[in-house]
Specification:
Number of strands of chain A: 2
Helix content of chain B: 10-25%
Helix content of chain A: over 70%
Order of helices and strands of chain B: EEHEEEHHHEHEHEEHHEEEEEEEEHEEE
CATH superfamily of chain A: MetI-like
Number of domains of chain A: 1
Structural class of chain A: mainly alpha
Oligomer: heterodimer
Strand order of the largest sheet of chain B: 5-6-7-2-8-9
Strand order of the largest sheet of chain A: 1-2
Strand content of chain A: under 5%
CATH topology of chain A: MetI-like fold
Distance between the termini of chain A: 60 Å
Largest sheet of chain A: 2 strands, antiparallel
């Protein structure tokens, strides 16, 4: 009796998550996959016609937006890493008693909704805003130029909105790092820079991989930043999908676009993890030099 | 604190936690900078130099092996930073792994090794660089007793082979006595005694040293003249150390547990100095029997009686018996009370460490 119960315990623990995934992920995915191969309109209804043309159309018509989405998300991810790593490092190593407060500051923006935060950026980057006039005074923006409705504005918005997703896993990785390893590095004739490159960076690589994934994936599918901070020439694939679903109501095409986006991200992810998992990124001595 | 360590010496800093031994080690390594004073290695003052510019290497208590590198890469790390040629790195790393008996594990990662193996990698990683001074911070502290004993012997042999100065930090007095050429017994930031193991054990210079090295058998006494002392509430006994103290001065008489004999008063050897006491407890330890004997209200003496024969053991006086403790005059030494045990005086440690003088 008890042994039967014991054997059932793992399944019992798995059940809630499993049911959740089935109901809210597997089943919708199935219907969406089916929908992406149908033809029809919302008025006449959809018939299954194995319309793979939905996919070829998706790629041929919206390749610009696909490319733009990955380009923006890529730049934003790199910026998040460049800003986030020193920040996480400072919080983990130098913040002392301010550590919790600084971590709170990183998470604090979540107390406001994503939309409001992005719209606030619209105000900040508005043509008549003080921030923009400062940029103009510094000649970082031409006198007749603008910031809003540019690629820079969208990338800035993405970077700002996804920074916490980069900082938190990096902080977790750095916090776990055994400080004595850094002493060992210095003891073995490595300068601070060498110790960072040969010890700190490779050991915190899992944090970097996690941070990059958590930033890049949602950023690539994002449409909020492009909607509020970009113009028509900054539309990302997320904007296309959003308008197909909610404006044009071409559900099949929208589903096909979503699947294509997912497939590209999945392939990119597999390549990235494979790459990140090999010696080159894991600080293998031979390859790194 | 002023300390001179000779070239090629196995030098041990021994003391309880918080006595400053690790801090001293870290100052030699360069992880901490002295506020004042010098750290001379081979005549050059390295105080102020960062750790990576010093001719020292450290074996850390926690080993601090790089988890993302193989053993080979771990051991080669220092040489690589020093821009040694690839062929030479390969050769020296292989030799060093051979020395510590881990050649077959060269391609493994540290997590795949046992604690004892990791410890040997840590040693190889430091030794391969042929430092002027090798610093060891309680390197055997995390290992079990049997492994520790084996590695103590190995460490000592390796040190003899390579002839590098070892500065070893431990709180284990037995470890210190086994391996060291010289021991500095430290207490509260200063050195109580610095001498070879035999001297530290047989002729402790302070009550702290006597207590920290082995069991403290301390009898308060007053110096009576140049060659005798009077044990408090006890007899006046001869002492050749008395001349180091002035008459009337307070001191402590130390006799090691294995140097004491215990007998019933009527059978006691009359020609040896001795004190009377009452047996409080008797503990069978296998090779010997440890007896606790109270000789005064606040003085308890420990005696180790070798278990030479079962018969003799059966005839040892039991608990409550009145006995006499005797010793040969040359086995009793006088020590002064440790400064740290006295009411605190103004202690500003002057952190001066002199090192590897050729």
């Amino acid at each position: 009796m008890t042994s039967v119960r014991r054997r059932l315990v793992p399944y019992g623990l798995l059940a809630p998550g499993l049911i959740w995934l089935i109901v809210f992920f597997v089943i919708p995915m199935y219907y969406m996959g089916e929908l992406s191969l149908k033809t029809g309109t919302i008025e006449t209804g959809y018939q299954m016609s194995w319309a793979f043309s939905n996919y070829t159309d998706a790629i041929s018509q919206y390749s610009t937006q696909f490319f733009r989405a990955f380009y923006y998300a890529g730049v934003a991810t790199v910026l998040c890493l460049l800003i986030g790593y020193p920040l996480a490092y400072a919080i983990a190593f130098k913040a002392g008693r301010w550590k919790n407060l600084m971590l709170f500051a990183v998470v604090a923006p979540f107390f406001t909704t994503y939309l409001i935060r992005t719209i606030a950026w619209k105000t900040i980057l508005d043509d008549s805003s003080p921030a923009v006039s400062v940029l103009k005074t510094l000649h970082l923006v031409p006198q007749d130029g603008r910031v809003l409705a540019t690629s820079a504005a969208v990338i800035a918005g993405l970077t700002y909105n996804f920074l916490p997703f980069m900082v938190l896993p990096l902080f977790a990785a750095l916090e776990r790092l055994d400080r004595r390893l850094l002493e060992a590095g210095k003891d073995l004739y490595a300068s601070a820079t060498q110790t960072f490159l040969k010890v700190t960076l490779p050991i915190t690589m899992p944090g970097i991989v996690a941070g990059v994934l958590l930033t890049f994936i949602p950023a690539a599918g994002d449409y909020v930043n492009a909607t509020f901070l970009g113009g028509t020439n900054q539309a990302m694939i997320g904007n296309v999908i959003q308008s197909k679903y909610l404006v044009v109501r071409d559900y099949s095409e929208a589903a096909a676009l979503s699947f294509t986006l997912m497939a590209i991200i999945l392939v990119a992810l597999i390549i990235y993890i494979k790459f990140a998992g090999t010696g080159a990124l894991m600080g293998d001595e031979e390859e790194a030099e | 604190m002023d300390l001179d360590i000779a070239d090629g010496e196995f030098f041990t800093m021994l003391g309880p936690s918080g006595c400053g031994k690790t801090t001293t080690l870290r100052m030699i390594a360069g992880f901490e900078q002295p506020t004042t004073g010098k750290v001379l290695i081979d005549g050059t003052d390295v105080a102020g130099l960062p750790a990576y510019k010093r001719p020292t290497n450290t074996v850390f208590q926690s080993y601090a092996l790089f988890p993302h590198m193989t053993l080979e890469e771990n051991v080669g790390f220092g040489l690589k930073r020093k821009k040694v040629s690839k062929a030479e790195i390969k050769r020296r790393v292989a030799d060093e792994l051979e020395r510590v008996g881990l050649s077959r594990e060269a391609k493994r990662k540290p997590a795949q090794l046992s604690g004892g193996q990791q410890q040997r990698v840590a040693l190889a990683r430091a030794l391969v660089n042929l430092p002027k001074v090798l610093l060891l911070d309680e390197p055997l502290g995390a290992l079990d007793l049997k492994l520790r004993k084996g590695l103590q012997v190995q460490l000592k042999n390796i040190q003899r082979d390579v002839g590098i100065t070892f500065v070893y930090v431990t709180h284990d007095q037995e470890e210190a006595l086994t391996m060291s050429d010289r021991i500095a017994v430290m207490n509260a930031g200063h050195i109580e005694q610095c001498a070879d193991p035999e001297t530290v054990y047989d002729r402790p210079s302070t009550t702290f040293v006597a207590g920290f090295i082995g069991v403290s058998n301390l009898m308060p006494a007053v110096v009576k003249g140049s060659n005798e002392i009077e044990i408090a509430d006890g007899p006046t006994v001869p002492s050749k150390d008395a001349g180091q103290f002035s008459t009337g001065e307070k001191c402590f008489a130390v006799v090691r547990p294995e140097k004491l004999t215990v007998s019933l008063p009527e059978n006691a050897p009359g020609d040896q100095p001795g004190v009377d006491g009452i047996v409080e407890s008797s503990l069978y330890l296998g090779t010997s029997t440890q007896m606790a004997i109270r000789v005064a209200e606040d003085v308890q003496m420990t005696v180790l009686v070798p278990n030479a024969s079962e018969d003799a053991r059966q005839h040892l006086p039991g608990g409550g018996a009145k006995v006499r403790l005797n010793w040969l005059p040359e086995h009793m030494h006088l020590v002064a009370e440790s400064e740290a045990d006295q009411p605190a005086d103004d202690q500003t440690p002057t952190e001066t460490v002199t090192e590897g003088v050729n």
